[in-house]
Amino acid sequence: MSQTDSTVAPVSTSNPMALNERWEEIVTDERNRWTDSDGDEEFWAEHVDTYEERFVNKPAGSSRIRSLVGPSDTVLEIGPGTGRYTRLLAQRADVVTALEASSSMANRLDRNLTAANCRKHVEIIEREWPSTDIATHDWVVAGWSLYRQPDLHECLDRILETATQGFVIIDSPGCLPPHRRVAVRAGDTLASPPPRQAFYCGLLADRGCYPSVETVPKTRERRADSKATLLETVLGDAVEDPLAHADALDTWLHEEPDATDGTWCYRYTLPAAVISYVDGAPNQPPGEGENGTQAAPAEVDR
Ligand SMILES: C[S@@+](CC[C@H](N)C(=O)[O-])C[C@H]1O[C@@H](n2cnc3c(N)ncnc32)[C@H](O)[C@@H]1O
């Protein structure tokens, strides 16, 4: 995209907020399980079966993706996981390249796409972003997958180089779900999630790139046959006696006697950040977007 042209001077060269350095400190914080690819692979191998169970509504940013990606477009998806976004992309785009680091996730993605009858539009590549040569694509989509990039500046540069039309990044705006807040109060030394959109936007501004940011609510839930099992599922890794913390989570716990997939439900809503950029969009500095292309109007994500 034009932001990486040598003719476009970076807006700031003084690094006033040291965003890349701070980001690296956060993603390499050893309290996080994802600091290296082995730890991450182990985590996904354990959670691949239950990953999609917790999402109640369509993935955050779906409407935005749908408004941007057209039937003749190519898309690189970074970290597709089980394919929540890939299924949507495969229905919209001509070709999707799905770059997935975890072999457990890549296998599940293959099965899920076949079951959803959209496997033929997707090439699955089992490799790490960005340590690989990837051809340019019209769009790059990264849903909740840039959390262990030690050099975010380089990562975003590679996204700008790879995407000829634009990108959509979906990530956390920096908030803990209720069970993790309870775990922290009980002494668990979890690192706080950063407001990732601030890092993306700050570092992209250094490249003369000004994305749109939309914050949308997303509901997640876990279910089990009893309250005790449910509390063990959500808190068992973090506290010794999960049942002792039932009161603290009371607002989000309820019983649904007629449910077939578990009568006890833990449900909460958190915001998600949808960061999108369209090359040549009107929100870019003067001199950019001279080819007259306009951003598609953003749809409200529900
Ligand atoms: C939280 S899951 C998100 C999956 C999917 N995008 C979604 O929103 O449902 C993160 C995924 O990104 C993958 N991932 C993390 N870092 C990666 C990297 N550097 N290269 C490729 N995949 C990566 C993980 O293996 C995992 O499948």
Automatic annotation (TrEMBL):
<dbReference type="Pfam" id="PF00398">
    <property type="entry name" value="RrnaAD"/>
</dbReference>
<keyword id="KW-0949">S-adenosyl-L-methionine</keyword>
<protein>
    <submittedName>
        <fullName>Methyltransferase domain-containing protein</fullName>
    </submittedName>
</protein>
<dbReference type="InterPro" id="IPR001737">
    <property type="entry name" value="KsgA/Erm"/>
</dbReference>
<keyword id="KW-0808">Transferase</keyword>
<dbReference type="GO" id="GO:0003723">
    <property type="term" value="F:RNA binding"/>
</dbReference>
<feature type="region of interest" description="Disordered">
    <location>
        <begin position="279"/>
        <end position="302"/>
    </location>
</feature>
<keyword id="KW-0489">Methyltransferase</keyword>
<keyword id="KW-0694">RNA-binding</keyword>
<dbReference type="InterPro" id="IPR029063">
    <property type="entry name" value="SAM-dependent_MTases_sf"/>
</dbReference>
<dbReference type="GO" id="GO:0032259">
    <property type="term" value="P:methylation"/>
</dbReference>
<dbReference type="GO" id="GO:0008168">
    <property type="term" value="F:methyltransferase activity"/>
</dbReference>
